[in-house]
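Researcher: Good morning. I'm working through a list of sequences from a screen, and I'd like to move beyond sequence-only analysis. For each chain I'm collecting a predicted structure so we can compare shapes side by side. This is the next one on the list. No need for commentary yet; just the structure.
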Amino acid sequence: MAFGESDRLVTIFSPEYGLIRAIAPGARKPKSSLRGRTELFVVNQFLLFAGKSLDRINQAETQYSYPGLGQNVCNLAAGQYLIELILALGTEASAQASLYELFTEHLRRLETEATAEDIYGHLAQALFHCLGAEGFAPQFHHCAITTQTIRPNFYDHQWRVGFSPELGGIVDLGNKEGIGPIPQMRRLTAMELSLLQQLNQAALPNPQQYLPAIARKNFRLWDWVKAENLMRHYAQRQLGKSFRAAVLLDSMWEVDF
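Model: Good morning. Structure tokens for this chain:
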């Protein structure tokens, strides 16, 4: 954001030090060497001088950037969505190397791999990976109550499994004796659970490669949208933050939850 007459106040995310707020002197001047280096999605090697309340950038050498994220509004909104997630997960004066690596890797995937058909799938997996790095990932393979493995049943159209943000995972709806009512439980179809169970993979798999034959013809883009929506609301609940860029992305896709 603007700071003073020509400076810029920036938030830096570092693997060694977490979140750092610093002044980029003169960065809003047209000919400033810091102008482009302090834009979104630019990775720099910084030389900082410590101040009483804010650090000050003395030098910046660009390592790489993600120009593809600015080529269309959807990719830009998706990238900003991940920035908001990192701002919520990041901490000051604390090393977060794993989270940093995941963040930069998922930005790369949004830039080079994500398509209009699977951008919500990439975002759902980015949410899962980043939350997992900080110990917040939900459980999609075992019942949060019984710890028993749950596998999607595509052969019963009425089959459902519950998801409880409060318990942090899925719930076997047929085995809740003695537990009592669970608030804010969402019912998931076999298709939804199958997609969510793939989010822990290193890369986003093609649903046509793991869905059973009976389910492949029924897969739609909307299924990835629902998976991302569940992960988003879970993340927002856990972090106490809402992601404004996600609302912008939904508006471009005319998604109404």
